Structure formats: C-alpha cells, structure tokens
Amino acid sequence: MNKKILSLLLAGSCLLLQADEPKIDPETGLKIAKGFEEVKNNCTICHSANFIVQSKNTKEEWLATIRWMQATQGLWEFDPQTEETILNYLAVNYPQSNTSRRRPQLKPKYLPKP
After folding, report:
1. Alpha carbons within 13 A on the beta-carbon side of 22
2. What are the helix (H) ranges across 44-97?
3. Residue 10 maps to a domain
4. pLDDT tens across 44-94, in order?
5. What total of structural domains would you count in the chain?
6. Which end of the chain is more exposed for a tag (fewer CB within 10 A), N or C?
7. Residue 66 lies in a domain
8. Alpha carbon distance 19, 1 (integer Å)
9. CB count, 10 Å around CB of 102?
C-alpha cells in the first residue's frame, strides 16, 4: 500500500515539475515564454537561435552582447520597452549557469571594441 501511495506522489510531483517548464518552439528551439516573440523577431533575423540557446549569461552580459552587436554587427537600436522585454526573456530563460562544460562568456570589458 505504501509503495502505491509513494508511486502516485512521485508521478504527481513529476507532472507538476513539467508544468513549470516552458514549451519549446519547434521552429527555433527557443523557450516559449513572455518575450519569446520579440526575441524571435529581432534576434533570429541575423543568427540562429542556437546562439541564444547555447549561451548562458547574466542580464548585464546579455546587454553587453547586444551593445557589441549594435556597435560591430549592424544590429539596430531597440526602443527601451523592447530592449527590456528581450533582456528579461534572455536572463530568465537562458541565465548564467556554472553546470555547463562550455567556457563562460567573456566579460563585457574583454569584448572587442567597436
């Protein structure tokens, strides 16, 4: 009896954990969450969404990356609301992680100058 109850509790908790994970867009591989459309429409025009999915940064590092792309890669300027939406999406869904084998992104002061 106890094993059945434990199994049911375990299965239920797994379902709850799955409910918190955002769905993945089949076209881009990006997490579908608040800000997804802005990121898809502004970022995947120039590069693959894999660049985003594989990168793990703090909000400040994402901002530095955007500024570098604006200064050197021809990325247009965003209005403040769009920029904040994009930064929040990236920081929440692709935050800095110490569990990756990939080396950490360069600090903004070490990025190439425009």
Report:
1. 15
2. 50-54, 59-72, 80-93
3. no
4. 999 999 999 999 999 999 999 999 999 999 999 999 999 999 999 999 999
5. 1
6. N
7. yes
8. 28
9. 9
Position 42 in a domain: yes
User: In CATH, what number is assigned to the domain containing residue 52?
Assistant: 1.10.760.10
Read off the tokens for 8: 């049911």
Cross-strand bridge partners of residue 31: 24
Predicted TM-score of the model (pTM) = 0.70
Amino acid identity of residue 16, one-letter, is L
- At a CB cut-off of 8 Å and minimum separation 6, what does 71 contact? 114
The span from the CA of 38 to the CA of 82, in Å, is 7
Q: Is residue 49 within 8 Å of 43, Cβ to Cβ?
A: yes
Domain annotation covers residue 57: yes
